[in-house]
Design goal:
alpha+beta; 2 domains
Amino acid sequence: MFVDVNYSQEIKHGQNTSGDYFLSRRYLEEGRLIAVLSDGLGSGVKASILSRMTATMLLGFIEEYTDARKAATIVMNSLPVCQVRHLNYSTFSLIDCDDEGRVRVLEEGNPDFLWFRGSKPLLAPFDYLESHAFPERRMKLYDFEVIQGDRLVFVSDGVTQAGLGQPGPKNAGLGRDGLLDFLKVLLERHYVVDSLRLSKHITSMALNLSPNHQAVDDISASVVHFREPRRCLIFTGPPFEKARDAYYADAFARFKGPKAICGGTTAQFLSRELKRPLIYGRESRGGLPPDLGMEGVELVTEGLLTLNRVIKYLETDDLKQSDPAGALVRFMLSHDIIHVMEGTGINMSNFDPSQIHDFDIRRNVIKRLTQVLQTKHLKMVRIQRV
């Protein structure tokens, strides 16, 4: 089971930064994911600093203490209070879950999260935890299990208070019940909607309830979806032993899922072994060699130059480029588990001793690609060197 998490935000009108903050981290070896949605006191830069501080502290405590009650107690007794307004610096929702469906949620101040199985809402059992350091502070601790297909929805109060004081049926604010009704209808119609799209539906709906479609508070929504993982395969670089070309070509062909090829030499050996001709004639885009075509393969691109461009786009969130690297970025980001067959043979067409320092060797490129996909985009990357 794969844990798909994403979020969407709308900044309060007149501000240039959100006072809400979303932070997530995936621990591949443990099959674990932790995410925090924090809502800072007030708005603008100060609220942004407070929510970031809260989210970072929370994630650090939960990482260190596996016992949820112990972690929650430390959090309650550590998070600061505004000395002027006597309010918590930030409200928050935290989820700590794994690939087996075990879930722990800590909540303080944020609207209660929603749990859906299909379009049916479910209720999770919880305990109240009291703080000894701050008598007015009380936190909810949930401990439950989900199954494949379940969704959890977390929002800041900018969602539940959307429409407050405006003409119409939502003049008392959308509220938790209004959000529940909205999601029930949406999930009945679009059961397969992904986490990013669902979170955007929520923030767009809240924005539409705001006066003149201008947010009067920061609006944030995060969705966690437990589902079957989407897998893809990328083959880059020729195999070390030419005698095993047929073996690796067959492994490539038998992979169940979308496939891409990065590298002209790689494409040629696969074309030869699989007896699938390469389709030429496409125009060059973005200064990169033109992509090719092959039956049964989603993308066929040039190798190292394109992969280096891919890394640049991923690092800078430049995800809409129309060149072959942009197409490869979208191919990767549309999948959860990215299998890479990394050929370790030397491609003599790229080997130039006089320019060796101007090019990253393939292994370093794949290492950098893996790092940005896993840390910034929360993908699982599995490398097979051939």
